[in-house]
């Protein structure tokens, strides 16, 4: 998915907008893209003026703001004001990161890529809904079984999630074969959770597993990058870690780091929800690690 370009490098508004943009209708998208292209106009002007520039009704402009997670235009103005206040520092970072080519020293490449990666993690905090995160932690902590699904570039964070949940003493499965994923999903029940990791939220195999798990009565969760996708429409809770595309780097690369950050948050949240069981399980994990060390 191609992100709309913005004069804002990062921040609350651009992160929320980029996560929601692919799922917006034409009218909403036109208004949000205008804000992304000229955020300073929001600070200077009124909703009426911006609506006229975008060629939409004022009521449509307000609804567009609501569809990306704000109560209205005034909340968008406040968010952009905060983002612009940080713009000088972001522009300095961006200038430092530009110009990578075959002559760039390896150490400089590492520094610039890690700066971008760090920003992706910070931006994820703007799009993950705390209530959905809390509900997911509660349901996984009490689950009889957890099925974790991820394919393609999402397989790595999904595998890590299953491993981390197993380390807490939970019964977690991560089938790598798509047929096995679908079959495992159909064998879930009301005591189970199905956690699906998908950057686009449009992977057919991952979507089939989520649909099968929900039909079986399991609580379904998505860790994904975009607010409106086939996957977010079928799950019970969506944890959105989206953000702008970062230059020549693949969009999914930055999002995968954010997804791993959500997995870490789930791990910590579940551990503190069941401290005695988690402590015992982590002690077993430590002993097992020692047994496999030279």
- Beta-strand content estimate: 5-15%
Total count of helical runs of at least 4 residues: 14
What is the 3D shape?
globular
> What strand line-up does the widest sheet have?
2-1-3-4-5
**What's the number of domains?**
2
CATH architecture of the largest domain: 3-Layer(aba) Sandwich
The whole-angstrom Rg is: 21 Å
- Superfamily at the CATH H level of the largest domain? Glucose-6-phosphate isomerase like protein, domain 1
Q: Percentage of helical residues?
A: 55-70%
**Run of helices and strands:** HHHHHHHHHEHEHEHEEHH
Q: Give the termini distance in whole angstroms.
A: 45 Å
CATH fold name of the largest domain: Rossmann fold
Low-confidence stretches: 1-5, 246-250
CATH class of the largest domain: Alpha Beta
Count the E strands: 5
What oligomeric state best describes the polypeptide chains here? single chain
Mean pLDDT comes to: 86
- Major sheet: 5 strands, parallel
Structural class: alpha/beta
Structural summary, described in words:
This protein is of the alpha/beta class. It has 2 domains: 12-85, Winged helix-like DNA-binding domain superfamily/Winged helix DNA-binding domain (Arc Repressor Mutant, subunit A), CATH 1.10.10.10; 130-291, Glucose-6-phosphate isomerase like protein, domain 1 (Rossmann fold), CATH 3.40.50.10490. The protein is 59% helix and 8% strand. Strand 1, helix 10 and strand 2 form a beta-alpha-beta unit. Helix 4 (47-54) crosses helix 5 (58-67) and helix 8 crosses helix 13 (251-273). It is globular. Residues 1-5 and 246-250 have low confidence and may be disordered.
